[in-house]
Amino acid sequence: MTTTNVQIVPTRSTLAQRIIALGVLFAFLYWASSIVMTVMLAVLLAYFLDPGVVLLERIHVPRALGALVVLLVAIAAVGAVGYLLVNRTQSFADAWPRYSAVLRRAAESVDRRIATIEREFSIVVPEQAPQQPSVSANEIQEIRGWLLHGIGSITSGLLLWAFLPFLVFFMLAAKPRLWRATIELFPDTSRADVRSALDDVNVVLRSYVAGSSLVAGILAGACWMFFAIMHLDYAFLAALVSGLVNMIPYIGVILSWIPPFLIGLDKWHSIGPFLIVAGVLSAFHILAANVLMPAIVGRSVHLNPLAVTISLLFWGWLWGAFGLILAIPVTATLKVICDHVPDWQPWGRWLGA
What we know:
By secondary structure, the chain is an all-alpha fold. It contains 14 helices and no strands.
């Protein structure tokens, strides 16, 4: 009996320690979300830009200089795209009162219909004199506090994002040294497995980022042509947003409807064009998920639909919109780690079942 008790106690203790460690990890990911998301985004960008640095290395350009050149080219490309979008975004902002008036009329129409239904199905009660809505002092304080909190969050977010180019540069320039230093953290007997796991993570992240970027570009171009055929105003701006959000599994197709629906409210006065837009964008989503992504990304990122859905729900809840963007690469990386740790291999098989 004594031996049995000695064996049980460590098992329970180990389980409790794992639960506590998992809780601490999730708490850290939540409270330090800005830092963690910035670092993860820098990692993805570094994997995306690394082939350019490797190409420059092959023509005898020092890695640090190559990393700087590739990063500057990437920043210039993003700046050029942003410059092209400024005029279209400003034009859309100037025209926003027209769209907001359409939305307001639609909302008033819905309110009138709801009021009619309520009058038909509710119990008749004596009418009361209408009262003007009032805003209490507590509500004003809550709104002021919410605005101040939002401004503080934006400020801290911009401060962290200012470090993003530096993080990407250091990751690109020091990648070989960081690679070796990471492997040397483990004992000699495990270094071969660690090197294999890092190589697999490299393949997964690079394939996912490069493939997803290419598919997003194809989707944006297809949406642009489709919106132009539909004579939709601000076709390029709507196509860019729809093409990018359409890359989010499952819910992305619904989000891609919002820009054309919003712009089309002022132009289309029947339900037909809206149904056509929804159908075509849904077809684009199905084509991208079932044909383009497997063909371009390949089988390197292999997660079953249930794992993808759970990861989107969890990381979206934890980190919001950026969680939806990072959910797939984070989960795919976890699967690679599980595949290389014997005790965790059943979880890896489940994620890829």
